[in-house]
């Protein structure tokens, strides 16, 4: 069949689990722009700020382009031979259980399938787990226990069709922005749609909240068991539904009633206002069309499975499931966390939603993977879950590990210990796209992988929708697709007959066949996409988004599950299960008296290996920070933007204080994005102890115990420098505090010195590290201030300001000066004078960035509000902020409120008593 004349440039965003469709605009084989795919059912044309900056993160610069063996660049043949030989040697000498794999929800389904088949099927080790353990494991365990399968019952339209949407432990506005926009639009269409937000922090998500419950961290199970008891008390249970479709109500209610079920007692335990609590209970109990959407504030807990269960119990008890606009909705984090679970990527799974304890599953998968002359040797029992796996590496039991598309030395709790364990592990193989990550420092063999826009395959989003990611550009250098790397190693290990793939379409077809293999009658597996098993290459290439199950009976896919009240349990009934609420295991004490909360910021993705490449995404939050309640800060003498230090079980964290009344007292919040690549000591995982949920193995990443103190410094400085000066990097990284902020044409370093260090001799320092002599300076020795710059052939090469960074103007103007000569115009004399000031004469400072799409700063927005713009629309008309992806709208709204409050009630010097 002839191919379409113009290639299909539709693909799927590689970041969050919303799974937005993207259209790429190509020029000479490269992506030069992206826009939302108007036909994709996840986003209908919308994109958030990360999605719309995708094309800015591409390019060969910073990519891994050659395999590396023991620190030396080698060719693929050498690298693959080393991987195969060393894996085989380890297995032969120490048994299959000495070999392990650690995968990621950012791999494509096809990569994941092949890796799972190699490790569990042919290397015969059960120790293959994934970073989804840190993310979705508790949600999965609860769905399986209660609904019988790891199956999200709802879809995105249910959020729009609901009468009540409860967002628990989810900062949807920042982390699933396009869904948040869909919710905002639905609320505008239907003013009766109510939104409740349950989160210890007041987040931007609260913009849509009709009711906010600022709960005590870790108290959610108590809230939902209390809700169940309250519903029973008021006759709000759906007795008919419970009778027909569920089991376990009585025991569950008995357990819920063990605690004091008075509103006052529940409110006190959750530290919320009893009237607000009652409003929430009343709303939940009296509406049928309720969606409870939950995420890491629930999952990342040492009792996360129970918390998910407590939510599901309330939905089952009210019959609020399997209907339009109703259901317990676990929202997925990574783009393909769900696809990874479909292929069996968790250590307690086998393949295609079959587990070790599913009757006949081991034999069935063995039959399916057998070839004419190869019989796989599957393990008989589940392997180590992530945290256990790295402990087994530390103990020396696991002696070879292959890590793909994840950075465990940053993202696991007690991260430093993970790093030490890997450093002494005899064989660490890492498949990665980027040349500079923390994990690569401990790798023996590095394999350069192709990345988004280069690789071809499928992902499954939060609503079970399978979409294509399409390969539109050639990978740089010698980077290869993950499925190819794994299959080639399998071939060299002698398993070629089972790994003869030549294209991801063949892998997908096999995966789809397995999902339908011996899958009929009683105990049918819910995950079944057998109707896609015969897709030819062209049909696979053209595959339109489709929600599983996709079967002969439902060839167009299945938008909603369990509509007939028949669940995936052996008897078809859903289970309510007793939940005994428990607090966090990381205990506060005299020394570590602050509750640590960790999470995400709007414009960054995880360890920033990709998002930091789009300089505009660095401007919203440029440095690692610690959000502290103003009263707590005052008690410690900490001011806004001061440097502070947290100390926890596994290590410390240094960042800049952000005073935040949105924070509860006695609690601090830090972002998870900074690694050793970007700051001196700002890995959130270093602060956490590695406690896990006993059922799911998911770590308690939201509830650390830390001490907070000022980080005194003798001096602070900002150095902006052309990004090709490696020596600067080495010297700056020796400073007590440093944060590296990539800019468009340069790199910014925020620096601070130990209080004990004598005042630095800046002139000597500049002489030592910078190849270009100082050309301009202005210096005020009395207060230790200094500004200086180095200019070479009319082009700015570096710029230094000694003094607190609160005095910094927005640096976009300065950044542009780093390209002047490249653009052919020599630096003008008057410009040279302005350079020290780092701004145009008389130009208003734009302040910190609010709208990343249109690069609008806080200063400009404040001026516009003073000039009379009193709405988001008015600001958009004047400055364009908030008009593209909409992610900054909550921040614009709060700025309007703040600025107007200032205008009408100037802040008094002394607070009223
Ligand atoms: N911008 C951006 N978006 C992302 C990502 C990213 O890195 N950056 N990552 C993606 C991934 S992999 C994931 S898993 C999702 C995560 O998405 P979310 O779960 O929304 O993200 P988090 O910021 O980790 O945490 C959510 C909220 O839980 C709250 N919380 C903490 N403790 C508790 C508690 O005890 N109870 C309650 N009710 N709430 C609590 C926190 O204050 C926080 O606001 O985001 C995805 N989207
Ligand atoms: N304290 C704390 N810790 C947390 C969390 C938290 O909220 N608090 N959240 C947890 C959660 S939910 C998650 S999902 C994890 C995320 O944590 P990680 O998975 O460790 O973080 P990423 O930076 O996404 O790592 C992905 C890596 O894969 C690379 N990569 C991208 N695409 C490909 C590809 O196609 N092939 C290959 N081979 N490599 C690729 C990227 O460059 C990057 O280095 O963090 C967890 N850790
Ligand atoms: S919401 Fe943003 S990050 Fe998530 S898939 Fe859509 S465009 Fe990508
Ligand atoms: Mo995640």
TrEMBL record:
GO terms for molecular function: 4 iron, 4 sulfur cluster binding; metal ion binding; molybdopterin cofactor binding; oxidoreductase activity. InterPro entries: Asp_de-COase-like_dom_sf, BFD-like_2Fe2S-bd_dom, BFD-like_2Fe2S-bd_dom_sf, CT_Nitrate-R-NapA-like, MoPterin_dinucl-bd_dom, Mopterin_OxRdtase, Mopterin_OxRdtase_4Fe-4S_dom, MopterinOxRdtase_cofactor_BS. Keywords: 4Fe-4S, Iron, Iron-sulfur, Metal-binding, Molybdenum, Nitrate assimilation, Oxidoreductase. GO terms for biological process: cellular respiration; nitrate assimilation. Residues 6-62 form the 4Fe-4S Mo/W bis-MGD-type domain. Its cofactor is Mo-bis(molybdopterin guanine dinucleotide); [4Fe-4S] cluster. The keyword rRNA processing does not apply. One of its GO terms (cellular component) is oxidoreductase complex. It comes from the Bacteria. SMART domains: Molybdop_Fe4S4. Belongs to the prokaryotic molybdopterin-containing oxidoreductase family. NasA/NapA/NarB subfamily. This is Nitrate reductase. It comes from Halomonas halmophila. The lineage of its organism: Bacteria, Pseudomonadati, Pseudomonadota, Gammaproteobacteria, Oceanospirillales.
């Amino acid at each position: 069949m002839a191919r379409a004349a113009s290639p299909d440039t539709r693909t799927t965003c590689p970041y969050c689990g919303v799974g937005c469709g993207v259209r790429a605009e190509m020029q000479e084989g490269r992506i030069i722009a992206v826009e939302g795919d108007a036909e994709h059912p996840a986003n209908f044309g919308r994109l958030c700020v990360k999605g719309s900056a995708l094309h800015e993160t591409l390019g060969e610069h910073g990519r891994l382009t050659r395999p590396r063996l023991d620190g030396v660049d080698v060719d693929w043949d050498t690298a693959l031979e080393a991987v195969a030989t060393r894996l085989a040697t380890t297995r032969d000498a120490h048994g299959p259980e000495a070999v392990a794999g650690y995968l990621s929800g950012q791999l494509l389904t096809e990569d994941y399938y092949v890796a799972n088949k190699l490790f569990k099927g042919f290397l015969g080790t059960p120790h293959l787990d994934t970073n989804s353990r840190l993310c979705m494991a508790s949600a999965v365990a609860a769905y399986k226990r209660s609904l019988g399968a790891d199956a999200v019952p709802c879809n995105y339209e249910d959020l729009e069709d609901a009468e009540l949407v409860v967002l628990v432990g989810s900062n949807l506005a920042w982390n699933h922005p396009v869904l948040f926009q869909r919710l905002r639009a639905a609320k505008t269409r239907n003013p009766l749609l109510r939104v409740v937000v349950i989160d210890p922090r007041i987040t931007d998500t609260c913009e849509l909240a009709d009711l906010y419950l600022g709960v005590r961290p870790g108290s959610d199970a108590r809230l939902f068991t209390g809700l169940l008891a309250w519903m029973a008390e008021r006759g709000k249970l759906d007795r008919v539904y419970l009778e027909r479709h569920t089991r376990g109500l009585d025991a569950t209610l008995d357990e819920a009633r063990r605690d004091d079920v008075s509103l006052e007692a529940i409110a006190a335990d959750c530290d919320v206002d009893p009237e607000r609590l009652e409003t929430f209970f009343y709303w939940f109990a009296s509406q049928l069309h309720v969606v409870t959407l939950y995420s890491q504030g629930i999952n990342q807990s040492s009792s996360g499975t129970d918390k998910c269960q407590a939510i599901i119990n309330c939905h089952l008890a009210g019959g609020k499931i399997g209907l339009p606009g109703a259901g317990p909705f676990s929202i997925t984090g990574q783009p393909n966390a769900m696809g990874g679970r479909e292929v069996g990527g968790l250590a307690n799974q086998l393949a295609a939603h079959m587990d070790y304890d599913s009757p006949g599953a081991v034999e069935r998968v063995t039959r399916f993977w057998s070839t004419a002359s190869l019989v796989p040797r599957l393990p008989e029992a589940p392997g180590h879950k992530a945290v256990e796996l790295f402990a087994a590496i530390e103990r020396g039991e696991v002696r070879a590990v292959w890590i793909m598309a994840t950075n465990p030395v940053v993202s696991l709790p007690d991260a430093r210990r993970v790093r030490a364990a890997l450093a002494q592990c005899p064989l660490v193989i890492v498949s990665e796209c980027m040349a500079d990550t923390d994990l690569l420092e401990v790798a023996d063999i590095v394999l350069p992988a192709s990345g988004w826009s280069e690789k071809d395959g499928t992902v499954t989003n939060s609503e079970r929708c399978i979409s294509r990611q399409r390969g539109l550009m050639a990978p740089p250098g010698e980077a290869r697709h993950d499925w190819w790397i794994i299959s080639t190693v399998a071939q060299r290990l002698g398993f070629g007959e089972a790994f003869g793939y030549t294209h991801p379409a063949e892998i997908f077809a096999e995966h789809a066949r397995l999902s339908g293999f011996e899958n009929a009658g009683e105990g049918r597996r819910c995950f079944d996409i057998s109707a896609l098993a015969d897709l030819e290459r062209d049909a696979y290439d053209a595959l339109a988004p489709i929600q599983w199950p996709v079967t002969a009976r439902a060839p167009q896919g299945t938008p909603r599950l369990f509509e007939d009240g028949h669940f995936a349990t052996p008897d078809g009934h859903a289970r309510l299960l007793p939940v005994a609420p428990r607090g966090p295991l990381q205990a506060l004490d005299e020394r570590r008296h602050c509750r640590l909360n960790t999470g995400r910021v709007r414009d960054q993705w995880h360890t920033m290996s990709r998002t930091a490449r789009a300089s505009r995404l660095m401007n919203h939050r440029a440095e690692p920070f610690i959000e502290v309640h103003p009263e707590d800060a005052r008690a410690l003498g900490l001011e806004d933007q001061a440097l502070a230090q947290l100390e926890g079980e596994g290590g410390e964290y240094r960042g800049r204080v952000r005073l935040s009344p949105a924070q509860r007292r006695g609690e601090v919040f830090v972002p998870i994005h900074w690694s050793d690549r970007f700051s001196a000591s700002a890995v959130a995982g270093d602060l956490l102890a590695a406690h896990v949920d006993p059922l799911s193995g998911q770590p308690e990443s939201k509830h650390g115990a830390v001490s907070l103190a000022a980080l005194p410094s003798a001096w602070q400085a900002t150095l902006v420098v052309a990004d090709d000066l490696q020596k600067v990097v080495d010297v700056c990284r020796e400073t007590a505090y440093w944060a590296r902020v990539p800019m468009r044409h340069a790199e910014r370093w925020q620096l601070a010195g130990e209080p004990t260090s004598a005042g630095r001799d800046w002139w000597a320092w500049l002489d030592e590290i910078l190849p270009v002599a100082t050309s301009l300076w202005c210096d005020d020795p009395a207060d230790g201030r200094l500004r200086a710059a180095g200019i070479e052939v009319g082009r700015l090469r570096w710029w230094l300001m000694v003094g607190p960074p609160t005095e910094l103007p927005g640096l976009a103007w300065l950044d542009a000066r780093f390209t002047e000569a490249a653009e052919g115009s020599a630096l003008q004399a008057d410009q040279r004078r302005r350079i020290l000031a780092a701004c145009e004469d008389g130009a208003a400072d734009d302040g910190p960035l609010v709208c990343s799409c249109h690069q609008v700063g806080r200063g400009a927005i404040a001026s516009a509000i003073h000039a009379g713009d009193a709405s988001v629309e008015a600001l958009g008309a004047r400055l364009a902020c908030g008009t593209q992806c909409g992610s900054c709208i909550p921040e614009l709204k709060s700025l309007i409120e703040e600025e107007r409050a200032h205008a009408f009630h100037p802040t008094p010097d002394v607070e009223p008593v």
